[in-house]
Design brief:
The complex is a heterodimer. Helices cover 31% and strands 27% of the residues of chain A. Chain A contains 16 helices and 35 strands. In chain A, the strands form eight sheets. In chain A, strands 3-2-1-4-11-12-25-28-26-27 form a ten-stranded mixed β-sheet. In chain A, strands 13, 14, 15, 20, 23, 24, 31, 34 and 35 form a nine-stranded mixed β-sheet that branches. Chain A has a four-stranded parallel β-sheet with strand order 6-5-9-10, sandwiched between helices. In chain A, strand 2 and strand 3 form a beta hairpin. Chain A starts with a strand and ends with a strand. By secondary structure, chain B is α+β, with helices and mostly antiparallel strands. Chain B has a seven-stranded antiparallel β-sheet with strand order 2-1-5-4-3-6-7. In chain B, strand 1 and strand 2 form a beta hairpin. The chains are: A alpha/beta, B alpha+beta. The interface between A and B is large, with 72 and 93 residues.
Chain lengths: 694, 637
């Protein structure tokens, strides 16, 4: 009997989902998270779910886990002290940070520059030089390098990064220096940039490699500890972790290259949302995960997550809105600093209404939490207009409406609006900010948001989804049951994923289809070897290929998916054609006469794992949903108070229909259905919100 | 604009929330215009360095979002056919758009936005072309004496008619540049950026209705008007205040050129008077300053501290009055050379900050590296292929109220450096080192940023051009802060000989193995360095940003010895006395006298007025502004 366990550790709860590979039988457990050592909460959950399902730990063949340990290390600025070794002459590479200051003009006056992940004091230059063509111009001065390594290690750095100019073209010098470090300090953690990101642009590569070092000790300790604790609890199967691109990686990879999992948490949410939506019949979705301080959105097309080569991650030091670019393959999640805790304010000079990026956070939190918060937040606005009923089902915390009104009144006074209008205004603005993030992943990439369903989750997502969908024209809105479960589902449906890439900068007229095919076949072979090593049976192995392309001398590449077999003969013309098509889709013009350039060739190995079957109910109940009404109150909408029913979600049956305005509450989430819209419950207990017809 | 139905702006009130939503949408449209161009452009100057500026206007051509001035009216003057949907207009002639662009390298595109057959606005964008024809790659010859000696000057022309490319115009233009494929990609990227802006405006009209959209544009213009009226009262004194500073030379050996600004207010109206600025230069350092552009600079500068999220627009322009005498360095007569206007353009901000500092010193910054330093390198490689690189460098950001000036950062918004790996992969050059220069930032309670040292090793025979300034005068410190270091260029030949190169020069012959050491200026310090926390000074020393010597001499810090530090700081305080409001370094006469000895370069000769370009008197310029208002149109030909 083989069981598979998905584990998602959130800020408040740890969710576990257990599935039997053959029968599809499912069990779930929700347990409080333990932020100090998240593995404790996981172990408690494992014991509970085994007890409740009567499954022996020894029958857990696979444990699949999404974690935010790496993300939190960055957010809280609690990473390791990183030593950096650069090429001679480039010590200040992180200090210079590409020289960028923010806009608009004069933006430098108020710029606050975050500290780099490796301090300048902890950076040393190695005597060596590689050319852009990958030829050693100056070999590694081994004595000098041994000296700077000793100097760094003895000064107390906890990890080392080696990032040398042109190592994307030839990694030999980086490897040699790693060898020297390990010769002197055998177990010292070393990251070399060509391992993490074998692509050109030295600043981005160095930064990504240093961030890898920065989060590494904390992730490694966590992963090793969790792994051994699971083994001690009798769990027989392998622990695997979710990557930022929603693939799985082993604990060894996660420990060495934790940066690949920097978006592990959000990636699980996106993968879970996609799985749930696909089952419900929606293959094109926008995901909308709104939490307390930020909102993550992503686009999935044709039942596939969209993978990008670069992502942005919030980077600590209490600077709201600061993000740092990290070049690792990632689900195309965009994050905006807009959430339930975002603070509204009206600058005196302009009299405009602004929401965020400052956030009340969890402490003191929104004014209505009664924990001393006085600033008006999005959550306060939701309480005032009645989207968040004061007595939440299962909610232990009563909400202080008066405190919310006092806070929001400040905004109303500044704008000449009454409290309700000000609250509605705050919600309109924050919804617009989130729509802005959705535009980034849709319209800006050439997609029409009206072709996509919006899948809402996270603490506040279902409350705002209807309004945001109205702005975007993205219907239906799909609200899956229990948001935490969604991320654990995402962990469970993930396949193994490993990338094998080679930088190959060549204009298309200077190569042939056969040459490309030979390289790609070689990379594909590496991918299959790796899958074999991971114990994936051949029948479950897949290898996909893509080529990063651009017009000659453009700065940004577009990945073009291809089948290497089609490259034979006149294959490069086919490549150019597909690239031209994509360029036109993304940017609305093409330049057929301009030479195309290849930058990277890549094989991606997938090891498929069995997918859980979701709980499915026959559509037996009728449209009537009166039995689920638990209360009635008023919701402020468009300038007036409308009588509004409050529903208990757990009482709703497939086929039930809820007319807006309505508020549907459940244990960890509240869904708002606006006037003029209606929600129906589908066979999987999703709420499907559409404009009400007639 | 004959035959074009220009939409009326309805007099309806837009509720404050809708207004803020439209504001946010316009702001993201502007960034989307940028993103479209970055991803499609070919030249590193746009793609990697981001030398481009977008804008969206209302039906009357007033900028509702963006960061340069209004000029649509001027641009249309010479187009004698109706403007219709799908048209795209291009120009590169500063003299035919009221100075909206100020050298021929900036290619300015604008396209009309129609909705329900009415003109509801314009989307516009300009980007710096790496080459725009003419005698030298880069089209910025330091020796040019007229605009005809710089390169191709495109009058306002229709690049597209009704959506169809005007192939004759494309062919004519691209036949005159050195790397036509690059210009084509950059130009198409700019057009694509404008179309992105157009698309977003269409969406807003579809969503809120044309009337609401247009009324919102008006309300956003009003919002900045009202905000600026308050700021003028707070920041501008009634008593006139002056500040002056220098552009070091004109590339032909004349200089330094004085720029002088006097500001005052009358009620909520503010006057910015450039009288006292030197006459125009013979060389290409003239800056054809658009009044509208200057108003935008002032607005940005004033408002940044108070509501950085505001949408910049033209709304406040009627509150500002700009006096620039004709024939001065800042309003040269046609056909003066303009290519290297970047020095005066940047100095303008130093001076603006200095003049405003008189009223609210706590809110202003010191002077920075003070220009856009360029390095250009071109030639034919051994395979007979033409290569051409242009790179913009950066330097020390001034010490600021909020903290230290950044080391080696860009004064221009969102600009970036070119990755070394990119340079080495595409050009015959190797970078020997790229770092900031220890001690080059002026000492201060908040330190001025360090300048940059970049060492280029050339791998093919070729020619090098340099454009820089602040080699002679110093980036000043403020309120006790000290000046930053000056810039310098040293060419190290393969045999080890070292040559000092002027800060502006062309056609310097280089051979494989020659190394150019390119050093930019530092930023001035902000407030008294003797008050800077000791641990910050020691941290700078540990990082190699400040030497122990400078820590001792300028900050009074004996590294590792708090007691000795206290004694030494006390000694320095007594010796120095009261701090100066502005520390511009030595007197100008001293600087000129010691130039040869200190910089290895001959001091510039005092400029003489050009007989063909007599300068308007300050009185006439003032009378013109009082009587006819700001000059938005300039008759130059």
């Amino acid at each position: 009997m083989a069981y598979r366990l998905g584990v998602d550790v959130g800020g408040t709860f740890t969710d576990l989902l257990l599935v039997h590979d053959e029968s599809g039988a499912m069990y779930r457990v929700k347990t409080p998270s333990t932020p100090a050592d998240p593995s404790e909460g996981v172990l408690v959950g494992v014991r509970r779910i085994c007890a409740e399902s009567s499954v022996a730990p020894g029958d857990l063949a696979h444990v699949q886990h999404g974690t935010t340990v790496a993300t939190n290390a960055m957010l809280e600025a609690k990473g390791a002290r990183v030593g950096l070794i650069t090429t001679q002459g480039f010590k200040q590479i992180l200090h210079l940070a590409r020289s960028q200051t923010p806009g608009p003009l004069a933006g430098w006056i108020i710029m606050q520059k975050p500290d780099p992940p490796a301090a300048l004091e902890d950076t040393r230059e190695a005597r060596e030089r590689m050319s852009a063509q990958g030829e050693a111009i100056e070999s590694v001065d081994r004595d000098q390098v041994q000296e700077i390594v000793r100097d760094l290690v003895e000064s107390g750095v906890e990890t080392l990064t080696v990032s040398l100019i042109n190592s994307y073209a030839n990694a030999e010098h980086e490897r040699e220096i790693r060898g020297l470090i390990h010769g002197a300090y055998p177990d010292f953690p070393v990251t070399i940039s060509s391992d993490v990101l074998p692509e050109f642009r030295e600043y981005e590569r160095t930064l990504t490699a240093c961030l890898n070092s920065y989060v590494r000790p904390r992730v490694e300790a966590y992963v090793r500890h969790l792994d051994s604790s699971l083994k001690e609890s009798g769990v027989a199967g392998e622990l695997n972790l979710l990557r930022s691109d929603a693939g799985l990686m082993t604990t060894d990879v996660a420990s060495e290259n934790p940066i690949y999992g920097i978006l592990s948490g959000p990636a699980g949410g996106v993968a879970g949302a996609l799985h749930v939506a696909s089952r419900a019949g929606f293959d094109n979705i926008l995901t909308f995960d709104m939490g307390g301080t930020s909102t993550d959105v992503a686009l999935c097309e044709n039942g596939q997550v969209t993978i990008e080569r670069q992502t942005e991650v919030p980077y600590g030091w209490g600077l709201p809105g600061e993000v740092i670019p990290i070049k690792v393959p990632s689900v195309n999640v965009r994050s905006v600093g807009a959430g339930g805790g975002s603070i509204a304010h009206v600058p005196e000079v302009t009299g405009a209404l602004r929401v965020g990026p400052q956030s009340a956070g969890a402490d003191p939190g929104p004014a209505c939490y009664g924990k001393g918060g006085v600033e008006p937040t999005v959550t306060d606005a939701n309480v005032i207009v009645g989207h968040l009923p004061p007595q939440l089902l299962g909610g232990e915390m009563p909400l202080d409406i008066e405190a919310a009104r006092t806070a929001v009144k400040k905004i109303g006074d500044a704008l000449g609006l009454d409290v309700e209008q000000a609250a509605e205004g705050i919600l309109d603005i924050v919804n617009e900010n989130m729509a802005g993030a959705l535009r980034l992943v849709s319209v800006q990439r050439g997609y029409d948001p009206r072709d996509f369903a919006l899948v809402a989750f996270g603490g506040a997502g279902p409350m705002h989804a209807n309004a945001v969908a109205k702005v975007m024209g993205s219907f239906p809105v799909l609200v899956p049951p229990a948001p935490g479960l969604l991320c654990a589902t995402g962990d469970l449906v993930a396949d193994f994923r490993g990338e094998f890439a080679r930088t190959f900068i060549r204009t298309i007229d200077r190569t042939t289809g056969d040459e490309l095919r030979t390289i790609l076949d070689g990379l594909g072979e590496e991918a299959r070897e790796w899958l074999k090593g991971e114990g994936i049976p051949e029948s479950s192995q897949r290898v996909a290929f893509n080529v990063d392309m651009r017009y000659y001398r453009q700065g940004y590449e577009i990945p073009v998916d291809i089948d290497p077999a089609l490259l034979a003969g006149n294959g490069t013309a086919m490549l150019a054609d597909r690239f031209n098509q994509l360029h036109e889709q993304f940017y609305r013009f093409r330049m057929d006469e301009t030479t195309c350039e290849i930058v990277n060739l890549r094989a991606i190995g997938y090891g498929d794992v069995p997918k859980p079957r979701l709980l499915e109910v026959e559509e037996t109940a009728g449209q009537d949903s009166a039995h689920a009404v638990v209360d009635e109150h008023e919701v402020y909408f468009g300038g007036e108070w409308l009588p509004t029913k409050i529903y208990d979600r757990s009482a709703l049956q497939p086929g039930n229909r809820v007319e807006g305005p309505a508020v549907i509450t459940e244990f960890d989430s509240t869904t708002v259905v606006l006037a003029g819209y209606a929600a129906e419950v589908d066979r999987y207990l999703n709420l499907i919100i559409n404009p009400a017809l007639g | 604009m004959d035959g074009v139905k220009v939409a009326e702006i309805p007099d309806i009130k837009v509720d404050p929330v809708t207004l803020d939503i439209i504001e946010g949408a316009l702001k993201s449209a502007r960034f989307e215009m940028d993103a479209t161009l970055f991803r499609t452009a070919m030249s590193p100057v746009i793609r990697e360095q981001h030398d481009e500026f977008p804008m969206i206007t209302d039906p009357q051509g007033r900028m509702v979002v963006g960061q340069f001035g209004s000029y649509i009216g001027e641009m249309l003057q010479t187009i004698d056919e109706p403007i219709v949907e799908g048209d795209v207009i291009l120009t590169s002639d500063p003299y035919k758009c009221g100075g909206a662009i100020s050298h021929i390298n900036d290619w300015l595109v604008c396209l009309p936005i129609f909705w329900e057959e009415e003109l509801i606005g314009w989307a516009s964008m300009f980007g710096h072309q790496m080459d725009a024809g003419g005698p030298l790659p880069g089209s910025l010859p330091t020796g040019a004496k007229t605009v005809f000696g710089e390169g191709l000057r495109i009058p306002p022309v229709k690049l597209f008619r009704k959506g169809e490319p005007n192939r004759d115009v494309f062919d004519l233009i691209l036949n005159n540049v050195r790397q036509p494929e690059m210009n084509r990609a950059d130009l198409m990227g700019i057009v694509a950026g404008c179309r992105t802006g157009e698309k977003r405006v269409h969406e807003l009209c579809g969503r809120f209705g044309k009337g609401t959209y247009l009324a919102a544009c008006q309300a956003l213009l009003d919002r900045t008007y009202n905000a600026m009226a308050k700021l003028i009262l707070a920041a501008i004194p009634e008593e006139p205040q002056s500040f002056e500073d220098w552009v070091d030379d004109d590339g032909l050996g004349h200089g330094p050129y004085k720029m002088k600004l006097t500001i005052w207010r009358e009620g909520e109206h503010a006057y910015f008077d450039w009288s006292g600025t030197d006459p125009q230069a013979m060389g290409p350092v003239n800056f054809y300053l658009s009044e509208a552009m200057f108003k935008m600079f002032i607005g940005v500068y004033l408002i940044m501290v108070f509501d950085p999220q505001i949408l910049f627009n033209d709304g406040f322009y009627p509150l500002l009055h700009i006096v620039i005498p004709d024939g001065s360095l800042l309003h040269p007569k046609f056909p003066s050379a303009l290519g290297c206007r970047t020095h005066a353009l940047t100095r303008l901000f130093d001076i603006l900050g200095g003049a405003l500092a008189r009223k609210s010193p706590e809110h202003t910054t010191a002077a920075g590296y003070g220009t856009s330093p360029y390095m250009l390198y071109s030639g034919w490689d051994r395979g007979g292929e033409f290569y051409y690189l242009m790179e913009i460098s950066y330097g020390g950001i001034p010490g600021r109220p909020i903290g230290d000036g950044m080391d080696g950062h860009s004064w221009w918004p969102l600009f970036q450096n070119i990755p070394t790996e990119y340079l080495e992969a595409y050009y015959p050059v190797r970078i020997d080192g790229y770092t900031t220069i220890e001690d080059s930032g002026g000492a201060g309670f908040h330190r001025g940023g360090n300048g940059i040292e970049k060492r280029y090793v050339y791998l093919e025979p070729g020619e090098v051009s340099i454009h820089d300034d602040r080699w002679l005068t110093y980036p000043w410190g403020i309120l006790g802060g000290m000046p930053g270091s000056r810039s310098e260029k040293i060419l190290v030949r393969t045999d080890g000989t070292r040559e000092r190169l002027p800060s502006k020069c062309d056609e310097v012959q280089v051979q494989p193995g020659d190394m150019l050491v390119y050093r930019t200026a530092g930023g001035g310090g902000w407030k008294d360095p003797l008050d800077r926390p000791v641990e910050q000074v020691e941290a700078d020393v540990a990082k190699g940003l400040v030497s122990e010597d400078k820590a001792y001499e300028d900050y009074g810090v004996v590294v590792g010895d708090r007691e000795a530090t206290e004694r030494h700081r006390e000694h320095l305080r007594t010796k120095r006395g009261e701090v100066k409001d502005f520390d511009l370094g030595p007197e100008l006469d001293d600087i000129l006298h010691r130039a040869k000895e200190e910089t290895g370069l001959e001091p510039p000769r005092a400029p003489e007025p050009l007989p063909w370009a007599p300068m308007e008197s300050p009185e006439d310029a003032m009378r013109r502004v009082r009587e006819v208002g700001d000059r938005q149109m300039t008759q130059t030909e």
